[in-house]
Amino acid sequence: MRALALALLAFPLLAQHGRYLSDSNNPAIGDPKAIAAGTKLFMGSCAGCHGPDGGGGARGPNLVRRSLWHPLSDDAIFQVIRKGVPGTDMPPTKLEDDQTWNLVAFIHSLTGPASTNPVPGNAAAGKEVFWGAKAGCANCHSILGKGGSLAPDLSNVGGSRPLAVIRESILEPAKDLSYLGNEAAVVELKNGKTITGVAKNRSNYSLQIVDAKGRLHLLQMAEVKKLTISETTSMPTDFAKRLTRDELRDLLAYLAAQDIRLETAKGSK
Amino acid sequence: MKRALLSLLLAATAFAQVRNEDIVKGPGADWLTYAGTYSGWRYSPLNQITAANAKNVVPKWVYHVPGARGLRSSPIVYQGVLYITNTNSVYAIDARSGRMVWQYADPRAKEGGVNRGAAIWADKIYFTTSDNYLVALDRFTGSLIFNRKFADVEKGTTSTSAPVIAKGKVIVGSAGGDGGMRGFIMALSADNGDELWKTYTVPAKGEKGSETWGDLIEWGGGAAWLSGTYDAELNTLYWTTGNPWPDYNGSVRQGDNLYTCALLALDLDTGKMKWHFQFTPHDTHDWDAQSWPVLIDTQIMGKPRKVVLHANRNGFFYALDRVTGEFLRATQLIDKLTWAKGIDDKGRPIMLPNSEPTPTGNWVCPSVKGATNWMGQSYNPGTGLLYVLTLEQCGMYFRSSQNPEPMKHFSGGGATEEGGQVVLRALDPKTGKRVWEYPMTGAGRMWTGTVSTAGGVIFSGDDDGHFVALDAKNGKNLWHFNVGEGLTASPVVYSVDGKQYVAIASASAVFSFGLFEPAVPFEPPVIQMKK
């Protein structure tokens, strides 16, 4: 069974405060030139503490992961760059407005929803990868009602997750994940039946499990004889080898385009 | 034996899909549409909890909805899962244990505001975002099936009501009438969200009915912000409309302002208006007609009739023939009523002087909240009574001379609400008269709906945060439970494993209640963690 995958993608929404990072209409956001200019500024002034990919360092937090549990609006990032964070090592700056926005655009490209940033690759080719047998993503994941039901729905993955997080979830699915709410489970009932699936929730008293056919079983622990829970992900961990560089890039482009808030004529992409 | 049979039956129907006939049949173990039945009864045939044993009701579980502050949502329950909405989000909860199964949230929706509930059809759960997207989700996993925009928030329209689904058509409405917009009711395909029809509640310039307006007709309001009811036999939807805009300044919209503050009878297949009845022509008190069009067949004035009952915010309780729209009768719903001395034989109010909003204000009863409002009412076929929460309250109504500007939160004036008492009233649909009443203590807030059962019990909320059980025959209090915060939603009744529950959303949580049972110790399972 290839139960869960991208569990990381399912959970941070729980703690999400307010809107995601797409509040600003500033033209710098998503503009490749502004992002390139912002990259230079970031490498010169910010990367020393926050790391060149925003992944954090000894003195500065991981900007990408922080955005998952407490995303800041573009305007709020602008203000943090301007004013710093009093009482920490984050100093105020004296950049001009347009330079500051370039920097915000670069940080947005690291931490904002993938769909709001320029992404390399061919989404149409990535669609073939997603739905094809080689990658097998759709065995477990669904998009707009098609695909499997054992792993998180990806209909809005590009509209809710930074590209870096999507990439990491594919290449290193077993890294640093919390599976609670997506645990691969095998349940043996006292009546002799066995259910294999994903535990959406469980306590000492009840268990809610979705099986491979996508059906939900609501159980009382009094009915359960034995419960086997996987401590790791059922998502394959070999995508770095299984897919070519181009296939991976295109797959990322396809996933980045999955955004339920992009206006589409027919509601499907 | 009975229980064994029941669980066998449950096993046989496991993983069924919700069909039209299931909703037409009305609630049993499940609660499949906003008001329980298409006819708007909020009545359950379950009879495990009775007037005799309601004293043994206890809370079974509580689910705190993340971030919720004033839930208005009435749950849907199907096969042991309870679905509740908050603004731009849905939660699926194990209806027996209160444990969350899945959640769906769209934090990028452009508006906030309340949400009144979800709908179910086949294997999908439906709700609308505040910025007018119809969202369909897999009922088992919460995975998105489709997300379709049906109206522009930029034109002043938002969405708050629970969809009603009949014959594969998802009926949605429109909110925002206090800021200027053009109200409508729409049918969307349950399969893919495609628009099937759209009926405006205010005519376009030059259309029939436009002569009852002035220049502001394009922003005339008439929002349809509450779900309506449906007669499957007549294939007719009964939907109410809100106030004309600007709310308190009628001088800029001389005439009746059709079809605001009205009840519309629409053909389900085409959306075509079969008839309309306007309760408050040329409203200047924000008395939207949003309360329940309850469909019953009964004797009225000596004749058996297909009737639609309507307790209106303007203070009168109406009975209409629901086939023809003919006005049959109106009686006074509340005691404090100063704006009209009655309703004439055509159904028009007989106005009293000094009731209009003025620059210095006029003192009018009922208040702007109205004699009743959108909360669920319950019709109980066992007692033959309709249970309606009412408010005895008055207030000052002011008119502003400012030029009306749409979409600027400008309503042409304002109103105050002073004091007031909430009274739950049992009305006899045959006569329109009160049979009994249950006065409540509280601040005159009035937002809890009612549900009633074949066990002869009414469940509702006190005006001060108590969930209560009353005897449906005489209004006697049987039981109460303090939820510790305001109740602004309507309760539902369901059963799992043959055990009856009653659930209601408080301001921030969902509570589910049932009869007391001692805990049964059990042998815990072997739990193995596998690397």
Give the neighbour order of strands across the main sheet of chain A: 6-5-4-3-7
Proportion of residues in helical segments of chain A: 25-40%
Question: At the third CATH level, what is the topology name of chain B?
Answer: Methanol Dehydrogenase, Chain A
Tally of structural domains of chain B: 1
N-to-C CA distance of chain B: 44 Å
* CATH architectural label of chain B: 8 Propeller
Helix content of chain B: under 10%
Number of domains of chain A: 3
Low-confidence sequence ranges of chain B? 1-13
For the secondary structure, the number of strands of chain B is: 40
CATH topology of the largest domain in chain A: Cytochrome Bc1 Complex, Chain D, domain 2
User: What's the CATH class label of chain B?
Assistant: Mainly Beta
Please name the CATH architecture of the largest domain in chain A. Answer: Orthogonal Bundle
CATH homologous group name of chain B: Quinoprotein alcohol dehydrogenase-like superfamily
Q: What is the molecular shape of chain A?
A: elongated
Task: Give me the strand/helix succession of chain A.
Answer: HHHHHHHEEHHEEEEEHH
Structural class assignment of chain B: mainly beta
Q: Which chains make the largest contact? A: A-B, 45 and 41 residues
Count of DSSP H/I helices of chain B: 2
